[in-house]
């Protein structure tokens, strides 16, 4: 049984934990990888094992069972698919006379193969419950000669003491705003990636805390300016149709960090971060990044969410819980989690203009609700020293979360999405990479090293942070034109048509990053005091042009801050002002034409 469970964990490659920081070295001398001639995959194939992708391959490797991964090195440039055989011996009898086992004996033979990357290295994730001695050998499909065997010993491991706080990385503070450059490389019609990617922008803004369906939540608001940008980019299928249309945007509710409940029977609910499903809205070319939630009939927005969960709940052996467990609030690295379709059922509650689903259900599982389905959700978390395409000096402390989403037990039969999130301490989400696998998606999880490797070498969608606005005090200046001097005050002569002034916003965006795009909030300063805040103008990359038309002459003084979404959605209440900082006041003096400005 131990051997069978180990082999299932090995072949399905479902589980992953990271290594201590000292094992994360990115570069080793090239000769350490040349265990066969570069590009050679001829049988009999020498192989070696190492604890890291860049480590020195050895015929024997000893690990402690908390590490959950090792690497097979098959020679520099030996990029190919392998079949695997194994035999197992207990630690008390490491040279027992065990027979070789073969993948065909398992329920799905495709899991008995894996693919090395362009450097001849394949990552293997194993079930960390197991200890013992495992002997492995490989061969290329269609050949009859096996490699020499290698020996892997797994000893009991001590508890990992590396305990970062998850919420220091998974930042979800109201008003925080992120802007990303997106690149879309996917095509399923030819099986080849686009050489020139489709470009776009994605914007994520964290809404104010509100009460919804018995929870305190902070919604993440995803908007975009292209159907090929994240979230839910357009993904066509081979043979026609599409996996995702690309014409959807998202509000993603997360349980607020301050929320405590005794409603759910799940043990230690309050020690985890939870997602409550999702609410989707129709993407519209006319308003793209602005995302006119909840809807704008004039611009063709769908008057209700396309579909959503209200909220999404899962029924498990220990009772019902929100739809997505994102890990403990205090996180021990390495970490992995698997929600298995055999024991969990997700309740998806579609919304409609009329009917019972327009109201919140009572917290808990709703038996018999429409849209139930089984599904698997797996993720793994580890610390990394490299973020593709980002200068490591910008973010010295980063962890990667690999999400694996598939609608069935055998993703190679349907589809699987791998989505890697890179999260920087005290900043939040700095990069997303997506890769799609399945018979109609042009890639196979069992034969493509990107499915489960450390990094996705050829992402189908790449999303990179270009601006993070994390509650700092904005600097606001005004001017009379794009080229005029900027300052804290300006004088404008008003006339019937064409009068305007420019507002310029600067903040703590990294050097070279895109300036803030989004709505501002304003409050007026008068002799009688300060007015209540109002949602004000949209600024694009730090600039807004304000048309005066027939504005009354006078002196207008106001201060500004980044607007944290506070619209009133159905069944949502209790909005909490995040108390973001205000800019210093600026003054605009409007004069009639008879009183020229200096």
Provide a short characterization of the protein structure.
With 598 residues, the chain is mostly beta strands.
Structural write-up:
With 598 residues, the protein is an all-beta fold. It contains one helix and 38 strands. It has one helix at 2-12; strands at 48-50, 60-64, 69-73, 81-89, 101-102, 113-115, 121-125, 132-139, 150-155, 177-184, 198-206, 209-212, 215-224, 235-236, 242-244, 248-255, 272-275, 279-282, 313-316, 319-322, 324-328, 335-339, 345-347, 376-384, 398-406, 416-424, 428-437, 461-469, 475-479, 489-493, 500-506, 518-526, 529-530, 534-539, 543-547, 554-562, 572-576, 586-591. The strands form eight sheets. Strands 10, 11, 12, 13, 16, 18, 22, 24, 25, 26, 27, 28 and 37 form a 13-stranded antiparallel beta sheet that branches. Strand 32 and strand 33 (529-530) form a beta hairpin. The longest helix has 11 residues, at 2-12. It starts with a helix and ends in a 7-residue tail after the last strand.
Topology of this structure?
Elements: H1 2-12, E1 48-50, E2 60-64, E3 69-73, E4 81-89, E5 101-102, E6 113-115, E7 121-125, E8 132-139, E9 150-155, E10 177-184, E11 198-206, E12 209-212, E13 215-224, E14 235-236, E15 242-244, E16 248-255, E17 272-275, E18 279-282, E19 313-316, E20 319-322, E21 324-328, E22 335-339, E23 345-347, E24 376-384, E25 398-406, E26 416-424, E27 428-437, E28 461-469, E29 475-479, E30 489-493, E31 500-506, E32 518-526, E33 529-530, E34 534-539, E35 543-547, E36 554-562, E37 572-576, E38 586-591
Parallel strand pairs: 2-9, 30-38
Antiparallel strand pairs: 1-3, 3-7, 4-5, 4-6, 4-8, 8-9, 10-11, 10-28, 11-13, 12-13, 12-37, 13-16, 14-15, 16-18, 17-21, 19-20, 19-23, 22-24, 24-25, 25-26, 26-27, 27-28, 29-31, 31-35, 32-33, 32-34, 32-36, 36-38
């Amino acid at each position: 049984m131990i051997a069978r469970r180990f082999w299932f964990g090995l072949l399905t490659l479902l589980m992953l934990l990271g290594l201590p920081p000292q094992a994360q070295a990115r570069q080793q001398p090239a000769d350490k990888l040349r265990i066969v001639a570069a590009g050679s995959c001829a049988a009999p194939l020498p192989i070696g094992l190492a604890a890291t992708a860049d480590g020195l391959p050895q015929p024997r490797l000893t690990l402690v069972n908390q590490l959950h991964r090792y690497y097979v090195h098959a020679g520099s440039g030996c990029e190919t698919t392998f079949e695997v055989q194994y035999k197992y011996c207990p630690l008390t009898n490491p040279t027992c006379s065990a027979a070789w086992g073969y993948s065909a004996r398992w329920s799905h033979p495709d899991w008995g193969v894996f693919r090395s990357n362009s450097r001849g290295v394949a990552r293997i994730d194993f079930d960390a419950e197991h200890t013992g001695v495992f002997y492995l050998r490989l061969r290329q499909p269609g050949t009859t000669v096996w490699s020499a065997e290698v020996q892997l010993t797994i000893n009991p491991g001590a508890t990992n003491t590396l305990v970062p706080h998850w919420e220091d990385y998974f930042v979800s503070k109201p008003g925080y705003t992120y802007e990303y450059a997106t690149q879309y490389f996917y095509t399923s019609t030819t099986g080849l990636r686009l050489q020139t990617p489709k470009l776009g922008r994605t914007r994520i803004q964290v809404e104010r805390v509100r009460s919804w369906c018995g929870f305190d939540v902070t919604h993440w608001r995803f908007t975009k300016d292209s159907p090929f940008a994240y979230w839910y980019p357009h993904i066509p299928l081979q043979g026609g149709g599409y996996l995702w249309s690309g014409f959807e945007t998202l509000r993603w509710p997360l349980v607020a960090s301050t929320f405590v409940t005794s409603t759910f029977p799940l043990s230690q609910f309050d020690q985890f971060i939870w997602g409550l499903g999702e609410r989707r809205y129709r993407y519209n070319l006319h308003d793209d990044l602005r995302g006119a939630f909840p809807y704008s009939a004039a611009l063709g927005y769908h008057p209700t969410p396309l579909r959503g969960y209200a909220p999404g709940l899962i029924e498990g052996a220990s009772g019902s819980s929100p739809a997505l467990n994102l890990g403990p609030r205090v996180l021990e690295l390495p970490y992995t989690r698997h929600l298995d379709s055999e024991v969990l059922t997700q309740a998806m509650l579609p919304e409609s203009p009329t009917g019972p689903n327009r109201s919140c259900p009572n917290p808990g599982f709703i038996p018999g609700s429409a849209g139930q389905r089984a599904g698997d959700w797996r993720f793994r978390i580890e610390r990394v020293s490299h973020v593709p395409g980002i200068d490591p000096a910008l973010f010295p402390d980063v962890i990667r979360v690999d999400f694996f989403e598939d609608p069935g037990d055998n993703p190679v039969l349907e589809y699987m999405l791998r989505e890697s999130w890179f999260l920087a301490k005290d900043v939040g989400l700095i990069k997303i990479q997506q890769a799609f696998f399945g018979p109609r998606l042009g890639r196979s999880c069992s034969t493509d090293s990107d499915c489960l490797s450390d990094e996705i070498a050829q992402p189908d969608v790449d999303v990179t942070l270009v601006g993070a606005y994390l509650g700092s005090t904005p600097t606001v200046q005004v001017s009379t034109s794009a080229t005029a001097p900027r300052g804290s005050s300006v004088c404008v002569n008003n006339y019937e048509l064409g009068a305007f002034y420019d507002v310029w916003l600067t903040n703590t965006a990294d050097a070279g990053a895109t300036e803030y795009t989004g709505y501002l909030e304003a409050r007026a300063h008068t002799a009688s005091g300060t007015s209540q805040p109002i949602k004000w103008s949209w600024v694009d990359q730090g600039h807004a042009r304000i048309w005066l038309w027939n504005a009354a002459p006078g002196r207008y003084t106001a201060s500004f801050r980044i607007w944290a979404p506070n619209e009133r959605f159905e069944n949502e209440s209790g909005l909490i002002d995040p108390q973001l900082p205000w800019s210093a006041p600026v003054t605009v003096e409007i004069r009639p034409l008879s009183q020229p400005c200096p």
